[in-house]
Give the backbone structure.
Amino acid sequence: MASTRKELAMSHTKWIDYCCHVLEVEQEAPTDVYATAFIKVRCLVQRIGERFSYDDHISALHLHDTVVQMSVNGFKKELAELEATPAFSSTQNNCE
């Protein structure tokens, strides 16, 4: 059953960026790479949701196909960059 309740999202801040940077640099635990990847994916999902939020029907009516396609292409590029990271690599061991 699909939930209609909006998901609560934590604001992405410079502090979160800093913490992710430390995790990436230090890599104290093998799962650090997954933690930072998860945060980056959640941030991307949040931005996609905000970009294509159709809660405001008037704004949705004014979206042109070109603008939508440019946004989709930009998000696809970001997703491809995330998929190229070690956390998504097929050679990466699962949480050793």
